[in-house]
Design brief:
By secondary structure, this protein is of the alpha+beta class. Helix content is 39%, strand content 12%. β1 (123-126) and β2 form a beta hairpin. It starts with 21 loop residues before the first helix and ends with a helix.
Length: 197
């Protein structure tokens, strides 16, 4: 599959938002909105809460131990910062929060921590914002590449599966004889809160 990350931990991060189906689009439902109370659509970037963030951190610790990776205190704290945030954070935002907690003030600290988290599937870099969010494996399967729904006002980011989108792109690319090496699916718009404002 194009753009599918090689290895991912189990279920770390934000609540899922499902793909918009053709039925949703035909009904005019904007991406990320609830059609009814029974839909499994979650709000964009809900607060993690202490219990949920700690569960995600424990899963990250187990994943690192199993995979022989070193989850240093700065890496773990950077992940916790991403989990606690309702919006995508830039490297300097993460650095400022690390600095406030007594970690080194050197920018490489944040960049190395974020590189580790993205390389090993604990976080994603949002290209449009040049920022980072914690990964949510529950929003897409371990083998699926994610798609991101980005609010242009508040910077909240929802993660969902890009499987159907990538399948269509792979088919089109193959028909043209093109071999994609990297695909990033980011959709910019308004979250329900900002659209209602």
């Amino acid at each position: 599959m194009i753009g599918a990350p090689a290895v991912h931990p189990k279920c770390i991060g934000r609540a899922p938002v499902r793909d918009a189906s053709s039925a949703d689009l035909a009904l005019g439902a904007p991406l990320g909105y609830r059609r009814s109370m029974t839909d499994n659509v979650a709000p964009l970037a809900p607060p993690q809460g202490a219990g949920r963030a700690e569960t995600a951190l424990a899963a990250a610790r187990r994943s690192c131990e199993t995979r022989g990776l070193r989850l240093t205190p700065s890496r773990e704290r950077a992940l916790a910062i991403l989990l606690d945030s309702q919006a995508a954070l830039g490297a300097y935002d993460v650095l400022e929060r690390l600095r406030a907690e007594g970690f080194s003030a050197a920018p490489p600290l944040a960049y190395r921590a974020l590189d580790f988290l993205t390389e090993h599937g604990f976080a994603h870099r949002i290209e449009k914002l040049n920022a980072f969010v914690a990964c949510d494996r529950s929003a897409h399967g371990a083998a699926d590449a994610p798609a991101f729904l980005i609010c242009r006002v508040c910077r909240k980011v929802a993660e969902t599966s890009a499987a159907r989108t990538l399948a269509a792109l792979e088919e089109d690319a193959a028909a043209l004889g093109f071999r994609p090496e990297r695909v990033v699916v980011e959709i910019e718009g308004l979250c329900p809160d900002c659209a209602a404002a």
